[in-house]
Amino acid sequence: MRQQMLEQEVKNLKAKLIILARGGDKAESVRKEVLNEPWPVKVEQQVRDPENLDPYGAQNHPLPPLKEKFDFGYGLEPAHKHPNGGGWVADTAIVDASAYIGPNAKVFGNARVSGNARVSDDAWVFGKARVYDNARVSDDAQVYGNAWVSGNARVFGNAEVYGKAQVYGNAWVSGNAWVSGDARVYGIAWVSGNEWAYEV
To answer: What predicted TM-score, i.e. pTM, was given to this entire model?
Structure first.
């Protein structure tokens, strides 16, 4: 009999903890009942991430916002929309607030976009790639691997820059061009059409 009473008590307590995690008016009354104190602040009625559940310290540690996820082509992963442009950025990538990520552009993996760089249209930056300074990646272009695009460089069209390639200065890579390996495209160079630039 005592065992059943204890099991029921544990079950009731678990149910109350779930209500606390969800927040709202019902949670306020449960908190008063369980902890004998009122909510210090109104909590939004949202189910929160159970990993961050801290029903006893809500007044000191507000519950975090719901985590968003996005599929970059490899399954759902934690991500967020960049405040400057609204494009998707994986939580593993680093994008400065000053950079622009267009609404259809994507930055994921361990990529970094910084300075006044812009990733727009349907462009992707991923892997360990870096795009910085005033560089632009646009259209359906992709920068990935350990590639760097910097200065006033432009990568656009269906161009791809990857491997350990670097495009910088006022260089442009466009069309269906590929720049890969240890290639360096810089100054006022332009790689376009179906050209490949690589160094092994």
So the answer is: 0.68
